[in-house]
Every structure is written in structure tokens, then in C-alpha cells.
Design brief:
- By secondary structure, the protein is an alpha/beta fold.
- It folds into two domains: 192 residues, 3-Layer(aba) Sandwich (Rossmann fold), CATH 3.40.50.2000; 172 residues, Glycogen Phosphorylase B (Rossmann fold, 3-Layer(aba) Sandwich), CATH 3.40.50.2000.
- The chain is built from 16 helices and 13 strands.
- It has a seven-stranded parallel beta sheet, with helices on both faces.
- Helix 13 links the parallel strand 12 and strand 13.
- Helix 9 packs across helix 14.
- The protein is globular.
- The termini are close together.
Length: 378
């Protein structure tokens, strides 16, 4: 079987969630599947380091750079798929080449389309109805014209299934993501070295990990943190450390510390390297995420694997992962967030152990095996 995979964004300096997902998936597939042939489509020449990570030098994995001065997906990728059609085309980026997939012009008669839909997050990102419709259009198109859809959680499948005109429930398969084995409990020396790098040594810090964008609910998180500080629910030198690059409509998030007068206790760290993040997470007082919506919640799973207390929104995806091992808060209520931050420091060690055991059940190898099964059955 010939499998073509959209890798157009994998050469980014700072990969986001969908890119990290695909990098980990390909790494696992290249270890487990030696019989099928994979062609990885790139927008620019990938580094040798990235290729090694993706393919593990497997002989059945090939890379192909597609050049285009126009839209890469709608021109270069379309041209390649029509010229050399694979048996299965897989995308993890909520976008498809229109001319190759839209009836009655669909030229990929024999190619099956499999997509990974990470979540329907655009619903929470944009207040303007017109922009919400426009930004969600590629996702809806991808869902409608895919022969099979993979989602990371039952919650996402349920939401997609509520649009029967958009996607049939029977073509959706739930395949959870995995946890990299670098996320674990590190020694004090290893943690301290990274903490000093970010001026967090000798300070209790609550660590947020994600792109800075509206869905992440950072203004309410800062409001709850400020309330916990001012009411002495957490130490006066506690820090809210936000690790993540700027996304879109981030201004309100960046202005929140000044609004609540906690500028000295809130640090925007930017995007943290893959080497520094695991030990930095390991040394946190707690991992915190008060998102309004998540398709899966990989940072939460990584925190659980690191034996770190977790303070998270009471949303379906987080409840499915952490169950009774996290402190759940109302993301709309700063008072609830403040109480959650205070409660995190009293988390029972047995609870952290149970969270770690839960996280260890999620592996990228298992994700790869189940994904390959979808490729074969489509």
C-alpha cells in the first residue's frame, strides 16, 4: 500500500500541537510498519535531523519536496497527487486539496482520504460569526470529504457527530495520542538547572503550556491566580509561568497581569525547547490549564506522566484523561480557579502515582498501530 502524508508544516522552527502529533506519529509508524511505502510531502527541504526523527532511516519512507509560488496545498500538492496518486492520503492539518477531492471534479478516484481532526476549537476562538464561519470552513470541508476521520477523544467524535449533514459517525475512529517518555520525574539537580535558566529557582510556580490564544482562557486564569495571591491561598512569591508562543488575538492575555496588578508574579516564557520543557514541568508546583475547550489535552497527560499536580477545567476531554487524579475548576469562575490553585499543593502522592500509571497507558506506538489499521480498512 502506498501512503502519502501532508508534512507541509513540519519544518516549522516551533511546531504546535498538530505538528507535534504528526512528528510523533510518523516516528512510531517508521518503527512499527516495514511493509507499506510512505511518501512525505514537504513545502521546503527538511533538515536531516527532522528526517531522522520522522523515519528512523527506514527504507520504506521517502521524502518529496513540492515547490510552488502559489498555494502549496491547492497547487503543488494537488499536482503531485494527480500525477502520482497514493492508495491513501493522510492529513493532520484540517485542509485538503479542493480540485483533487471535490465532486464532480474529484480526480483522486482510487485514493482514500484519511484526516485527523484534533478538535472543533474554532467555535471558541472567534466571537465574530462571519470570521467563525470562515475560519472553520477548511475543517468542515475536510470532515465532509474525508473517507475516514481520526479524532483523539470520544468528546470530539460526539461533537462532530452532532452535524450529521457534515460527517457520518461511522467513519470516525477515536485514537488517543501518546506520551513521550521524556516526560517523567527528574532529579532536583536536573530541575534546578532549567529553573535557573528561566529565573524560577527557589519559587513555587504554576506552569501553563500552550499557545497564547482566546480558547486558553488566560485572562480568567490570571484573575484566579491574582485572587489566590491576595487572599494568601498561595505563597506571596508564587509565579504563574506561561510557556507558549503567541497565537492570535493574544492581546487580552498579555494585558491581564497588569489589569489584576500581578505583573511581578506572572512570566510569559515564550515557547520552551523540547529539551527544557520536561524538567521544567517536573519541578512545577502544579500544571494548570483553564481552557474553555480541548480536543484531547496532551500537556495534561504529560504533566500526569511527570507526577505533577494538575489544576484543569472541568471539560469533557480533561475529565476523560485525568478522572479523579486532577483538581477540576470552573474555567468561567476566578474564585474556583483560585481555590484550585490552593488545593493543588495538598495533592496526595498516591494520587500522583495513579495519574502517572494512567498516563503510561498512552503510547505513540499504540497510536501508530491503530492509525495504520484505519489506513488499511478505509
Amino acid at each position: 500500500m502506498k501512503i502519502g502524508i501532508d508534512c507541509q508544516y513540519l519544518s516549522k522552527k516551533y511546531p504546535a500541537g498538530p505538528e507535534k502529533y504528526l512528528i510523533n506519529l510518523l516516528n512510531a509508524l517508521s518503527k512499527t510498519d516495514k511493509s507499506n511505502n510512505y511518501t512525505l510531502y514537504f513545502k521546503s527541504t527538511p533538515s536531516q535531523k527532522l528526517l531522522k526523527t520522522l523515519t528512523n532511516a527506514s527504507s520504506n519512507f521517502y521524502s518529496k519536496v513540492l515547490n510552488s509560488n502559489l498555494s502549496w496545498t491547492q497547487h503543488a500538492l494537488t499536482k503531485e497527487l494527480l500525477k502520482n496518486p497514493p492508495d491513501v492520503f493522510f492529513t493532520a492539518f484540517h485542509t485538503l486539496p479542493v480540485l483533487a477531492t471535490f465532486p464532480p471534479f474529484k480526480a483522486l478516484k482510487k485514493t482514500k482520504i484519511v484526516s485527523m481532526i484534533h478538535g472543533i476549537d474554532y467555535i471558541y476562538e472567534y466571537k465574530n460569526p462571519l470570521r467563525k464561519f470562515w475560519e472553520g470552513l477548511p475543517l468542515r470541508y475536510t470532515a465532509y470529504f474525508s473517507d475516514a476521520i481520526i479524532v483523539p477523544a470520544a468528546h470530539t467524535k460526539e461533537k462532530l457527530s452532532k452535524f450529521p449533514w457534515l460527517v457520518a459517525s461511522k467513519k470516525i475512529t477515536v485514537i488517543p495520542e501518546g506520551v513521550d517518555n521524556r516526560f517523567k520525574k527528574y532529579s532536583q539537580d536536573q530541575v534546578k538547572q532549567v529553573q535557573e535558566k528561566f529565573n524560577l529557582a527557589q519559587k513555587p510556580y504554576f506552569l501553563f503550556i500552550s499557545t497564547i490564544q482566546p480558547r486558553k482562557n488566560i485572562p480568567n486564569l490570571v484573575a484566579g491566580f491574582a485572587q489566590a495571591l491576595k487572599s494568601d491561598q498561595i505563597p506571596e512569591n508564587a509565579v504563574l509561568a506561561l510557556a507558549g508562543k503567541k497565537g492570535w488575538d493574544y492581546e487580552e492575555s498579555l494585558e491581564a497581569p497588569q489589569k489584576y496588578n500581578v505583573q511581578k508574579n506572572v512570566k510569559f516564557l515564550g515557547r520552551i525547547s523540547d529539551q527544557d520543557l520536561p524538567p521544567l514541568l517536573s519541578g512545577a508546583t502544579a500544571f494548570v490549564s483553564t481552557s474553555f475547550e480541548e480536543g484531547f489535552g496532551l500537556p495534561l497527560l504529560e504533566a500526569m506522566a511527570s507526577e505533577v499536580p494538575c489544576v484543569v477545567s472541568e471539560i469533557p476531554s480533561y475529565k476523560a484523561l485525568a478522572k479523579e487524579t486532577a483538581v477540576f475548576v470552573d474555567p468561567y469562575d476566578p474564585d474556583s480557579i483560585a481555590k484550585g490553585l490552593a488545593e493543588a499543593s495538598t495533592t496526595n502522592p498516591q494520587t500522583l502515582k495513579k495519574a502517572k500509571e494512567t498516563a503510561q497507558k498512552y503510547s505513540w506506538e499504540e497510536t501508530a498501530k491503530k492509525t495504520l489499521q484505519v489506513f488499511k480498512n478505509t
